[in-house]
Amino acid sequence: SSPSRITNFGAGPSALPVSVLEEAAKGLLNFQGTGIGIAEISHRSSEFTAFVRNVEALIRRQLRVPPTHAVLFTQGGGSAQFSAVVMNMLARYRLLHPDVPTGDVTMDYVVTGSWSKKAAEEAERLGGGQVRIVTDARKHSVSGKAFDNIPPHSAYAFSKDPALIYYCENETVDGVEFSHDVASSSSFPYHLLPENTLSPLVADYSSSFMCRPIPRLGDHAIIYAGAQKNVGPAGLTILIVRQDCIVDVDAAVRCGAAPVPITLSYKTLFDSKSLYNTPSVLALYMTGLVLERMETMGGMEYYEALNKKKAEAVYEVVKVGSSRGVFKPKVKEGSESWMNVVFDVIGDGAEKRFLDGAAQRGMSGLKGHRSVGGIRVSLYNAITEEQTQQLVQYCHEFIGQETT
Ligand code: PLP
Asked: ipTM exceeding 0.95?
């Protein structure tokens, strides 16, 4: 319906459904018949607070969030959570173990790519405990320096009673991901769920949030995601937090923990129903529209099937290109992300030819992250099967051109 739009395979902010954008445009002028636009209405108005409660309900229903967990909204993106999870979980640990010396407090980080590496670096920077890299996926790569795999279960050495165990479910830059086939896959991080249930499992789901059901959601202490990949525009961060991880951070200070900025405290968010201060009103609104549409389409089961199909189609053509010496997959089999497919185009100037050809056909956002280069195809929820097929078709053409 919008011929001027091109297909955006970018890694985030990324494509949103056209129907949502059209509805949001109306909401910008008049939110739900109030006569006030969504960017202008008070976040304390009854219309908007009801809308926020509905966004929460849409997430709870589609992800089957158990009553043990709260759904919270905040700002600051995934990056703010790199800090917030550390501060809130150290406060929790301090309340539980007031006598453990700070130097003995451990935080276990599973490093499988650039984002979990960055999160671990922030934990290190904040101090308040020892950051232990319980696995570094680069050590398990062929080259010894690439994030191209999810290490085998034997490669993790957890602390005895860490304040948190951290992993990034889908590494957006590197294209590696933990879990696909929940029922049968050995790639799902069961090994991250410690015997000692006091060790809280924290997951960064920024780039795979709501692309399918979240396996073992109830066993996680914290799941967080920026909205700007699968469910909305930038500016909104979604948190799913187990009740026992919502702690009185000020009481923790009296036990020796570092103070937590009030807007980063999960208890502040929880007590205020995510409305302590002005939220990203527009981002919440648009996310609500996306989530409503997702539910209508068939929820997580629908998106799981769709996203699987899309990813398989792209990996298949990468394989064809690989057999003809045109493409080179970058991720080990079994660790490939459904959301971000990364590969190299082989040969002098070939990557530029690939990107130029794609641009001529109305496809953009395919350049890999600047830190790793190559091609990255992001296949978030709003990318349709037809758009995926258009890319696959182009890849076949390109392989033909390069090999004649
Ligand atoms: N975590 C992951 C997996 C990401 O992909 C990103 C951003 O792309 C971030 C964290 C950082 O998110 P933000 O830019 O919202 O701070």
From this structure: yes
Q: Which atom of ligand 1 is nearest to the CA of 81?
A: 16
Q: How many residues does the chain have?
A: 404
Domains of the chain, each with CATH number or no CATH: 46-294 (3.40.640.10), 300-402 (3.90.1150.10)
Can you tell me which atom of ligand 1 is nearest the CA of 205? 3
Spacing, Cα 342 to ligand 1 middle (Å): 17
Q: In Å, how far are 71, 137, 208, 378 from 171, measured between CA atoms?
A: 23, 12, 9, 12
Contacts of 312 (CB under 8 A, 6+ apart): none
Q: Is the CB of 151 under 6 A from ligand 1?
A: no
pLDDT at 185: 45
**Three-state secondary-structure class, residue 338:** coil
Name the pTM for this structure: 0.96
Pocket residue to mutate for ligand 1, from 74, 75, 115, most atoms within 8 A of Cβ: 115
Using CA atoms, how far apart are residues 176 and 148, in angstroms rounded to an integer? 6
Q: pLDDT band at 216, cuts 50/70/90? A: confident
Number of helices (H), then strands (E), belonging to the chain: the values are 10, 14
Indicate the average pLDDT of the chain.
Answer: 94
Q: Give the Cα separation of 211 and 220 in Å (integer).
A: 18
Tell me the per-residue pLDDT of 108-156, one tens digit each, with 9 for 90 and over.
999 999 999 999 999 999 999 999 999 999 999 989 999 999 988 788 8
* Mean pLDDT across 216-229: 94
